[in-house]
Amino acid sequence: xxxxxxxxxxxxxxxxxxxxxxxxxxxxxxxxxxxxxxxxxxxxxxxxxxxxxxxxxxxxxxxxxxxxxxxxxxxxxxxxxxxxxxxxxxxxxxxxxxxxxxxxxxxxxxxxxxxxxxxxxxxxxxxxxxxxxxxxxxxxxxxxxxxxxxxxxxxxxxxxxxxxxxxxxxxxxxxxxxxxxxxxxxxxxxxxxxxxxxxxxxxxxxxxxxxxxxxxxxxxxxxxxxxxxxxxxxxxxxxxxxxxx
Length: 245
Description:
Elements: H1 2-66, E1 88-91, H2 107-120, E2 127-133, E3 138-143, H3 147-156, E4 162-167, H4 172-184, E5 195-201, E6 205-210, H5 213-229, E7 232-236
Parallel strand pairs: 3-4, 6-7
Antiparallel strand pairs: 1-4, 2-3, 5-6
Helix pairs in contact: 2-3
């Protein structure tokens, strides 16, 4: 009987030892798995952040690439609210002597002379005006959108010159006609307000300088109608000057 009792005790001890060993091994593996899992999650998180940053950077580059740097440049006139950013910017690549000139050898004026010739030729119906910024070597051109005109202007841009193209909805020919109408009325409202100057602004409107813009503006808008009136800007000027079209 005692023999069987000792055998039972021995089996029990062995069983307990096995259970304890298995438990300890399980706890060790669990800790290792937990550490491994944490490292995997961390790596996954970093990978996700990296991908996100990469995607974000790619998106940002795409946006930047689609928006020419010079669009952030100031307009040549202080009245920037009247001059929205350019719809297209062309960086000149042609050699300086790629365009002829009679008066000035600088790239800026060679390009200007070429644009003037385009405007006086087959593009008179779309050309509105042009301004120069000597500090930035930039030519700003306002025109009714025309793929052919843009291609001819950009294709002629010389190295060192930037051409910025702005959208309008009126040609210089139409502005000149409106300018003539307003000029004929210089003395029309004497006694109500004084019209001191009239000029064509290259951005696509006729500038009317008066002594009292609050009084003059509704009168002028009514006189020239809604269609033409939207191309007239009435502003205050201190004294008359020799503005011309």
